[in-house]
Amino acid sequence: MTRLAALLIALALAAGAAAAETWHAERVTSGAGGAPRVERLWSKGPALRAEIVLGGHAIVTYVKGDRYVVVDTLTGKGTSIQRNAKAIAEDAKRARPFGNEQPALVALGAEKVKSEGAGDAVCELYRITDQAGRREVCVSTGKEQLPLVLRVWDRKSGAESETRYLAWSKDLEQQGATIPDSFFSPDPRIALESLTQEAFLAKAQSGEPAAVAPILYPELLVGR
After folding, report:
1. What predicted TM-score, i.e. pTM, was given to this entire model?
2. Structural domains of the chain in order of their starting residue, each with its CATH number
């Protein structure tokens, strides 16, 4: 690990410890020709835990410090991958490691086009249309601007998908639900294959499976 990467990790961990905000969200994605996909996500500062079931396999993703870990709890195996310096540096620039679709699209040029819904269900719709297709996200009108609905249309394939956030919770520890740091680390009994960033990219480029399960949050591994 380079001295710069070590410094970025220390700064990211310090920022996470200072903020110590906790978040939880559930979301379901449908369309694109597949079965609906349900995810449960938790964070504490920059640390992430995400759970999903794919093909009957319960997959858990952990992102903490300089490691991105994906575990197949059915087989008891996992892959621990070194995060690159760019991804680590981005930890300190966001309120949480998930639910950042609106700033990501705005950075690409998305603009607010209208408001949707009524009453307490009003959200502000941001949209970008480019060579890749169309992506839009509707966010809450409060200070947090939480994503509520994400829609994607792929120009090349014509596939469409929609992600709906079913629930948002913040500051869980203030509600009496203490989340230990160990919640964001895999069970030590899990057999982990450890890969450097270079080894992971080499495996991915060779066409062979680079991990025991799909990398569902690549921006947390290699940065945006």
Report:
1. 0.85
2. 3-222 (2.50.20.10)
